[in-house]
């Protein structure tokens, strides 16, 4: 497996509140994440960095024996980091109100474990199809689920940026947890909404699976496509080629 990340401020923001991370523990198991500090709130960049640093440090110090241990470790880790950030705000009132999304993926044996809070997404794909693994915790997604608006209408809805769950905003948070069989997919993409708001999933799929380019070139083209589509947010991604080794 080869993994790369990119994160840019974008053309319309003064500050990059996104953070990406790729970590390995002592047995070589990989964890990757994207954390998107809540725009318009105070200290979104502090919140996303807080989550990045806490999860990265915990992963580096852990060696997991099997998938079940991994799922339980990550589920509790997200809850613990959320509670720690919430308590930090109570002890330091100047930081109250900060929050961030989180999507992470860990590869253990032949399983990809994915957790998310908020509207940063995970996609898995092969040559034939792309699958949005995570479900956005957002106001417009609730309307879509209720049948009140379509997915196309959600993309242009004036309240499309309102998220209904975020790290740090409540003392108790539970992430959604997903498991994928590694061998069924060729690529894994984690992304902030600055990358995914405008391009269609089919465009992301075409860029990533088209041959003749390096993983770095595919990532750069994804960022360029988001900019061309009019993204007004920070743009961040982690892209994994699941079928090659690091040296290829």
Automatic annotation (TrEMBL):
It holds the Pfam family PP2C_2. Residues 2-242 form the PPM-type phosphatase domain. PROSITE patterns: PPM_2. This is Stp1/IreP family PP2C-type Ser/Thr phosphatase.
